[in-house]
Design goal:
- It is a single chain.
- The chain is mainly β and 301 residues long.
- The chain is built from two helices and 19 strands.
- The protein has helices at 2-25, 141-146, and strands at residues 30-38, 48-53, 59-63, 69-75, 78-85, 91-98, 103-105, 108-110, 118-122, 136-139, 164-165, 170-171, 185-187, 190-191, 200-203, 206-207, 216-217, 226-232, 247-252.
- The radius of gyration is 28 Å and the shape is elongated.
Length: 301
C-alpha cells in the first residue's frame, strides 16, 4: 500500500512538472501598446482598455498608466479589436491584424461624448511600422498556400526574405546531398555575414533549434498547419536571443469559435521544374540504330 501511494505521488508530480514546462514554453512575443488621449492631445490616465480576439472572442482588459500608455503582451497573431470607454467621452474602437512577433502601436483618440455615439476605426497593415526597427519578412496563410514549397516545407521560403542568402534546400544533417525530410533538418540559408549554424527556429514560442547541431531544427511543421512564418535578421526578441544569423518564428493555426478544417493534395511534376544554372543537365538520348564506323590504321590494312 505504501509503495502504491509513493508511485501515485511520483506520477502526479511528473504530470505537474510536464504541464508547468509546457505552459512556460507555450508563449508568444507579440504585443499591442499605445497611448490614450483626447482630440487636443491631452493624455487620459486610468482609462479602461479592452482587447478582444475576433476569432475566439476572448477579451483581456487593462488600464492606461499615469502617462496614458497601455500595453498587452504575449499575444498570438490574428485579428484583434481594442476599445476604451471613459466617462464623458465616446467609445473608441480600433480593429487591426497582429503578425507573428509584432509589437503593434495602436493609439486611441477619444472624442467628446454625444448622444449614442461610437467611434470605430479600422486599420490596415502599415507599409512601415514606426514602432519597431526590425528587418523582417512575414508569410501569412495565403502566401504559404500559393507559393511553391518543395515537400510542403515552409523553411524553403526563408531565402525570399530581404538580406538572406542561400539555396534554401532542405538537407539531412548526416548527408549533404539528401533531400529527404528527417526528424532533424538543416536549411542552407544565412544572413548578416553569419553562417547557417547561427540560425534559430521557434514554433509557437518554443525553441526547436538543436542543442547538439547548431542551426539544425528538431521540428519541421507542415505548411498546411502554419498560420504565419516570420523571418527576421536583426533586433531579435530578448525572449530567445540565441540567433546570430536568422531567427525564424513559426505560428501554427489555432482554434476559433467556428468549425473549420483543411483537406489538400499537392502534386509537383518534376520535369517542369527549373534545372538552375548549376544543376545537372539532362542526358542526351542516343539513337540505338545509329552505328559509327572507325577507319582502320594503315598498318593493319
Amino acid at each position: 500500500m505504501k509503495r502504491l501511494t509513493t508511485r501515485r505521488f511520483a506520477c502526479c508530480l511528473t504530470l505537474v512538472l510536464l504541464l508547468a514546462t509546457a505552459s512556460s514554453y507555450a508563449q508568444f512575443t507579440g504585443g499591442v501598446q499605445g497611448t490614450v488621449q483626447d482630440q487636443k492631445g491631452a493624455i487620459v490616465p486610468q482609462a479602461k482598455i479592452a482587447l478582444t480576439n475576433v476569432e475566439t472572442g476572448v477579451t483581456e482588459s487593462a488600464l492606461s498608466n499615469s502617462t496614458g500608455v497601455y500595453r498587452f503582451v504575449s499575444l498570438a497573431p490574428g485579428n484583434y479589436t481594442v476599445s476604451t470607454t471613459v466617462q464623458g467621452f465616446a467609445t473608441a474602437s480600433v480593429s487591426f491584424n497582429l503578425a507573428t512577433n509584432e509589437v503593434r502601436d495602436v493609439p486611441l483618440t477619444l472624442s467628446v461624448e454625444k448622444v449614442a455615439s461610437t467611434v470605430t476605426v479600422t486599420t490596415a497593415a502599415p507599409l512601415i511600422d514606426t514602432s519597431d526597427s526590425r528587418f523582417e519578412q512575414t508569410l501569412d496563410t495565403q502566401a504559404l498556400a500559393d507559393l511553391p514549397l518543395p515537400g510542403r516545407n515552409a523553411t524553403n521560403m526563408i531565402t525570399i526574405a530581404p538580406g538572406v542568402t542561400g539555396t534554401g534546400g532542405q538537407n539531412s544533417p548526416g548527408s549533404s546531398t539528401s533531400t529527404k525530410l528527417a526528424p532533424e533538418n538543416w536549411v542552407n540559408a544565412s544572413a548578416s555575414g553569419q553562417g547557417a549554424t547561427g540560425n534559430q527556429y521557434i514554433v509557437d514560442g518554443m525553441d526547436v533549434t538543436s542543442t547538439i547541431r547548431p542551426g539544425v531544427l528538431n521540428l519541421t511543421p507542415n505548411s498546411d498547419v502554419l498560420q504565419e512564418v516570420s523571418v527576421q535578421i536583426n533586433t531579435y526578441s530578448v525572449d530567445y536571443g540565441r540567433a546570430a544569423s536568422i531567427q525564424t518564428a513559426m505560428t501554427t493555426k489555432s482554434g476559433t469559435n467556428q468549425f473549420h478544417g483543411l483537406a489538400s493534395e499537392y502534386y509537383q511534376y518534376q520535369n517542369l521544374a527549373a534545372r538552375g544554372e548549376f544543376g545537372v543537365p539532362q542526358p542526351t538520348p542516343v539513337n540505338p540504330y545509329h552505328v559509327t564506323t572507325c577507319p582502320l590504321p594503315s598498318a593493319a590494312r
